[in-house]
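Follow-up to my earlier ticket, as requested here are the two runs.
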Amino acid sequence: MEYKQFKEIKLSHLGMGNMRLPVLNNNNKDIDYHKGQEMIDFCYKQGINYYDTAFIYHEGESEVFLGKALSQYPRESYYIADKFKYSAEPDYRKQFQTQLERLGTDYIDFYLVHGIADNNYNTYMECGCIEYFQQLKREGKIKYLGFSFHGNPGVLKETVKDIEWDFAQIQLNYYDWYYGTAKEQYDILTEKNIPIMVMEPIHGGMLASLCDEANDLLNELNDQNSIASWALRFVKDLDNVCVVLSGMSSFDQVKDNIITFSDETKLTPMELETIEKACHIQQTQIGTTCTACRYCVPHCPKNLEIPYLLKLYNEYKLGGTWRLSRLKGSDDAHTPVNCISCGICTKQCPQSIEVKEYLKQMTHDYLGVK
């Protein structure tokens, strides 16, 4: 396992995200403790010491699971990252105390203001939470204070202008590097000497399986490497990236990622050029860039499985309208027809995806093939 120096400690270059844990009966709140514990145990024994969760992950159950799963190990041997989400519970004192109780700990190593974006920047800056967390840091209840970010580069510049942050977490992957603002955000943070924790290095799974032409390009480089591993290698080679979080949901993903982070070989110029070519090919096939974070799902008044529907949207745009035929006989949660175009999902989406427009298009074509 590779390690990176962070201030006075060393962090595993690969961190385990606990947003996409294995679940029972397709119920996001019902974590499969047996499989999840196996994954945590294997990660710990392989040297991973950074574990990321949040107040809202798995509808609050992620923190509970993680606390129990790690409780058998010495507290000083691992680091927990957790986050304050204003929209989930504006009372930051109450939310922090709840998190300590869920995790079964009296301090949190890496604490983040969760999801600063264009539409909530002022709320976070004015609600008093940052000053409170700075006080908790002085008291030792928070070891390092940072933030996760989902806004435009201009807001990022404002976020880091006057506050002394220990670290920042951004969405960074080769797709967003070439087609989003990830490179600009990386440069802003690097210029301010703020270490970066990376989320969505595989873009919610999108970069784990590309279209056939893009997959073939990467397999020509080395068909023994998984497609996902190229995305992880791209990110981990960046000098200012301290921890790369992977929201692993299966034991196979854990093993594959650990192999990737046990190899310190840097990407060659030819490999980087091939990754860029594959990215450009993939971009022509993409309809929407949903990462399946599920922030939208609990707020949908019709209980739609929005990430599933957007994944299907991409498949139908890539493969043809006939793919929508699988919607026949689906329950209400898996049918775009039930969308009422309220727009609540877009307000909750870190990427501000106009979900209703995609579902409207699916509905039109779906009714046509029904």
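Run two:
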Amino acid sequence: MLFGEIMRVALQSIQANLFRAILTMLGIIIGVGAVITMLAAGAGAQQRIDEQIAALGSNILSINASRFLMRGIARDQATLEVDDAFALAADATYIDAVVPEIQSRGQLKFGNNNTNVRITGTTSNYGEVFNYGLAAGRFFTEGEDEARQRVIVLGSDVPQDLEAEIDALVGSSLTVNSQPFLIVGVLESIGSGFGSRSPDDMAFVPLRTAEQRLFGREELENISARVRDGVQLERAMVDIERVLRREHKIMPGEPNDFAIIDRREFLDTQQEAQQTFTALLASIAGVSLLVGGIGIMNIMLVSVTERTREIGIRMALGATRGTILLQFLVESVTLCIFGGLLGVGLGAGAASLLSRFAGWETFVSPESIVLASVFSVGVGLFFGIWPARRAARLDPIEALRYE
């Protein structure tokens, strides 16, 4: 009964000064809303990184071309060629799929619209190795690659750039650097990919077509190698290094003119940076909660001063110091709880708007709601103790004399 009476009095006090209570809660509302929004943005980014790691697979290695240093002098020519990919496919013991990539910028023109995209010449197993689905059509075949046919697969963003519907594109022709190509497929949206690369804003043509009809060169930017199941990546790296050093005729003691990279390491680094950034943003947002708590403490101190005579009357009627202390603590925590609930709604709404209009991936997790709510209650308790103790320590006789 005592606690019920305290709650009733607390609610009546808040209702009697409703506008002031709303202004008092504003700091908590903004603070909790900011925490929820920042954690939602961080959780969304974390989910995206997890999806990228899953999409990359646990057994994909990337071999990148690099400048070859001979006695401290850098050679400018690229160091990976199409024959290197064929050698890996034929001789590497622990590799079951090899995907070479030759890239350059190119101008796509469809009707009266055109766009400049990165064009990748690759093999027919590209989509299968990287788990890229098709929104329409198909990927080009090995036979089309061997025949050097002019066929092309577009990333998911390219149709929009060309202001055309996917169904209208598949089966139609466009020009790539003024050469006609048949559109055979459009990829599903993948999102931001490894590093700054994303297949969404790229186009893909057969490797031999790119080599002999578009770019006129055999140098590769990258070779991706899928390691056989059950084989350690380190063993596969040694195997790749053995084949490529032989192909490049690199003598013992000389450095490699290529780099073998486990691409998950970059995403792990990105993941750590994202977690740190999210924690930083949440900490900054938490400052708003502290500011709100200070505001609540100030208002509660004012409330103690205004209700000094009321406190004296209650003490005269038998209220203990513990009851008075609990009374003001309940009022402080109640303000924070209401502010926290409104802040959760504000944060969830802001996260939804960021996702809808800014294109951010957000996810409001139950853990973030619980964390923000518990923190807001803690703020109410922490900043409510001093005003509550001040009220509880008032001398009843002096309180009754207070005007």
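The only thing I checked on run two: The longest strand covers residues 95-110. Let me know what else you need.
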